[in-house]
Amino acid sequence: MEITHLTVPQWKTQSGLLHGFMGRRGGKSDGVYAGLNVSYRVGDDPKVVSQNLCDMKQAVGIHDGKVVTMRQVHGDKIIEIKDKQLKEAGEADGMITGEAGIHLGVLTADCVPLLFIAPKQRLAAALHAGWRGTLAGIAEKAVELFKQRYDVTADELAVALGPSIGVCCYEVKDDVAGPLMKKWGKLTTPSIAVKDGKSFVNLRRLNRDILRTAGVPGKQLHEIGPCTRCAPEDFYSYRHQGGETGRQISIVGWLTA
Ligand SMILES: [Zn+2]
Hints:
- With 257 residues, this protein is an alpha/beta fold.
- It has one domain: CNF1/YfiH-like putative cysteine hydrolases.
- It is 22% helix and 28% strand.
- The protein has 5 helices and 15 strands.
- The strands form 3 sheets. The protein has a 6-stranded mixed beta sheet with strand order 1-2-15-7-3-5, with helices on one face.
- It is globular.
- It starts with a strand and ends with a strand.
- 46% of the residues are buried.
């Protein structure tokens, strides 16, 4: 099966940008991990995971560059990456780089992968936002970091929010909906639905609205791909497989400075 990935149509004109949201199709893992699992931390055979990473890099056109990943912990820490030899950035849920040739990779299975670009300055960032990261405001923190460290304003950013669990499937209890509503207030009106006394969260919409409020223009915010739980053939979904499953990768980086 062929490895496929989704890209942002509006980013096609960005020369030197490499980005994509990979799914699970085309990899060599099997069983509950069947497909292109790229996580060494979910119990899959590490040899097969390495092969998957290699195949994935070839498929997207990274021939000798590195893909940097991080030990994701559902927090809001964002690390700056400068070392081209680095393979893993340590404990964090976001990475930002201004170095050409560094490709940032974020692993998900229902959580929201966010890819940021600042085209003029050739910067990129990748974030992982589940409900905890969303509650902590990791997307807003990334916008602040671009400003503080690189003097990039919010209106110079474009952000793609990738395949993640939709409002159709993401039922939560009050321990999740309550804190999100308390923290984000009116912003949650379009992203938390209540049906028959049950709450459903649209995490991608909420992150999009957080970014708009932080100053990123709506026309530069792109939601890419389906609900992961509704498309289990194409994407790993933690909820669909009851927790034991693989992780897909989303990548962003500039090939040239
Ligand atoms: Zn769904």
